[in-house]
Amino acid sequence: MPDCSEIRPLLSAFGDGEFEPPELLSVARHLAECTDCEREAADFSSLGTQLRDTLESTVGSIPLAGFTEAVQARISHL
């Protein structure tokens, strides 16, 4: 079974569902037995939720009409 030093770099991708079943199972097994890595995985999950919530609340307040054209005009100007 992989140790913590092998699992920790994978936690973000694990939380995002980026793994195929064999890798997913390996990380999940480790998390079931390691409270430290499980806690870190929960922190990643919480951070992801907070970022998504912030983005959703912010995007609604940013006027996006004409954004692409404004960026292209700025690039052309530069």
Q: What structural class do helix, strand and pairing data support?
A: mainly alpha
Please mark out the parts with pLDDT under 50 across 5 or more consecutive residues, or reply none.
Answer: none
Q: What spatial form do the alpha-carbon principal axes imply?
A: elongated
Measured between the Cα atoms of the first and last residue, the distance is 54 Å
Task: Report the radius of gyration as a whole number of Å.
Answer: 19 Å
Mean pLDDT: 87
> Largest sheet, described in full?
none
Helical content class: over 70%
Percent range for β-strand residues: under 5%
Q: How do the SSEs run, as a string of H and E?
A: HHHHH
Number of helices: 5
Oligomer: single chain
Question: How many β-strands, per DSSP?
Answer: 0
Describe the structure.
By secondary structure, the protein is mainly α. The chain is 74% helix and 0% strand. It contains five helices and no strands. It has helices at residues 4-7, 11-15, 21-33, 35-59, 67-77. The longest helix has 25 residues, at 35-59. It is elongated, with a radius of gyration of 19 Å. The mean pLDDT is 87.
